[in-house]
Amino acid sequence: MTTYLSLGLEGSANKLGVGVIKHTVTDANAENGFSTDILSNIRDTYITPPGEGFLPRDTARHHRNWVVRIIKRALDEAKISDPTKLHCISFTQGPGMGAPLQSVVIAARTIAQMWGVPLVGVNHCVGHIEMGRTITGATNPVVLYVSGGNTQVIAYSKQRYRIFGETLDIAVGNCLDRFARVLKIPNAPSPGYNIEQLAKKGKKYVPLPYTVKGMDLSMSGVLQFVESLAKRFQAGDLVVDGHQVTAEDLCFSLQETLFAMLVEITERAMAHVNSQQVLIVGGVGCNERLQEMMGIMARDRNGSVYATDERFCIDNGIMIAHAGLLAWRQGFETKMEKTQCTQRFRTDEVLVDWRV
Amino acid sequence: MITLPEQLEKLSKQENLIAQGAESLVYSAQHPYLPQQECIVKYRPKKPYRLPELDAQLSKHRTLAEARVLQKLALGDVEVPHLVFIDAKNGLIYMEKIEGLSVKQWIWNEEGDTEGGAQEAGDKSRSLPDGDVSSLKDTLVLVGQEIGKLHKSDIVHGDLTTSNVMLRDGKPVIIDFGLASVSTLAEDKAVDLYVMERAVLSTHPVHSQQYCDWLFEGYLAVVGKSQKEVMRKLEDVRQRGRKRSMLG
Question: Where are the annotated coiled coils located (chain B)?
Fold first, then answer.
């Protein structure tokens, strides 16, 4: 029995996360021949005032200010007194916002040299998928990855996570965030969470554009349309079918429309690859209405849905630690001179050689 | 004749189910007027996950759109199933049964990958089997030509994948027009091609580039003078896909 330890650093958007994971290998020849222990999972989110998004420079400053403290807390909680015992330092190499990625990779390079531990660059999306698979026990699911910057339907084939469907323009989380800004919905804990709470009180469905293109979808038109409705609502003259539309109704209609589109493309991908399992990952994935809709769809196909809660759905360091350790155990290492971050890093660029 | 909901009740037995698509169930059935002829019924069941208002609107719209497109294409030279009968309220379309394999399954068979590409891992560097190259090429060029003819008729399919093209006696037949629409815009056709390209990339990853080249060879051979604008737009759409900021 061998144990491995990895510390993961994530900072591709407005969350700074550090986590320590332990793999205990019982059968080195089997794909699933190990158990996973989460020793610590610390996160700090940069929150902006209502009506504002987070800008790269300010987000990077937040990460720089907090990264040392968060790393210390993660090590303390994991009860690691001697960090030179770590097997690798995993960091998010992309995709994400440039400046925040840069500030975190500098921290990663520094501690790697201080402690003499190898670095492993991780694709953020692969981190989400691997963590989701491990936590839920889904073996070979169709993955819906929905967050502020990503909307993809993914399935594994021949050592890569292949993108079957994705957004043709903006991501679903971005669409929700930008709608929240128009209505000045607070950004704490997250705009999506607040929209979800408001939507629960919505009753009147206001028709919105519905733009699905096969397994792909488009959301910029929906956003523009709902933004114009929100502005009319603020001006006090939004009446549909003789019904005075409220902010709650708009949140409800937007969620119902976007999520119906997401469930539809996921179902199309499941039919296309003959799969019965769905795994939802990414920040939008902790929305309970989305999970519920996906569950109904999966049930009608005699399948099942797997989802995680905010600890693992929302960006975190532990998923980076986990995916990094999986790659490191296959002999992968990112040499110091190859540790530049990249804003564009496609999910299907990563060789997933830890799966058969 | 039996009324449709009754008919559906009789049909919707497991043994008649041919396929469960993303939004429809396909049953084999008797032709409503010509009992000796076999046909299929495509039924869009209610989707309980979405709001009833939205669901009703989508089902009706798509059933009607599919029937309209099939009817329009019946007069042209694109190979599609014949429309037999439609009941939009109940979300039912009767159409001709196409015998044969989907192009997806056929390619997997040709590649010797019987269990399905997305579900199975294999070696990465396998080359195309020599003997099959010409039949793969010929078939995919034909598929490309069929898509070209479709676009030339100003129909955009909306879900071009290798699952949605069947091979009947080696000749491609395009099916499933649930997301189809009439459009003369180069942008819409370009998105259609982009969706196809991406579907090939994900479904047949090992030789996707070669397959796409063959599809485009056939496509460009038939579209004629509108091709320049469509291909230019396709470049735009590809860029949009690539440039999409990927945060999160």
Answer: none
Averaged pLDDT for residues A97-118: 97
The separation between the first and the last C-alpha atoms of chain A, rounded to the nearest angstrom, is 22
Annotation-wise, does A192 bind a ligand?
A: yes
Is A150–B246 a contact, with Cβ atoms under 8 angstroms apart? yes
What are the pLDDT digits (tens) for B81-127? Answer: 999 988 887 888 999 999 999 999 999 998 875 444 444 334 444 55
Task: Indicate yes or no: CB of B124 within 8 angstroms of CB of A159.
Answer: yes
Pick from B61, B62, B76, B53: nearest CA to B21: B62
Q: Are both A173 and A252 inside the same structural domain?
A: yes
- Does some domain include residue A355? no
B187 and chain A in contact, CB less than 8 A: no
Q: ipTM of the assembly?
A: 0.86
Question: What is the identity of the amino acid at A177?
Answer: D
> Using CA of residue A225, residue A227, residue A230, residue A234, what is the dihedral sign?
negative
Question: Which one of B53, B119, B243 has the shortest CB-CB distance to A273?
Answer: B119
The continuous run of DSSP H or E covering B231 comes out as helix B227-243
- Write out the two tokens for B190: 């370009």
CB < 8 Å from A in window 45-74 of B? 47-51, 53-54, 57-58
- Provide the 8-state DSSP code for A41: E
* B4-96 CATH choice from 3.50.50.60, 3.90.1300.10, 3.90.230.10, 3.30.200.20: 3.30.200.20
Q: What's the Cα-to-Cα distance from A313 to each of A124, A136, A279, B115, rounded to whole Å?
A: 12, 12, 11, 32
- What B24-28 contacts at long range (C-beta under 8 Å, 24+ apart), as own/partner pairs, is B24/B178, B28/B97
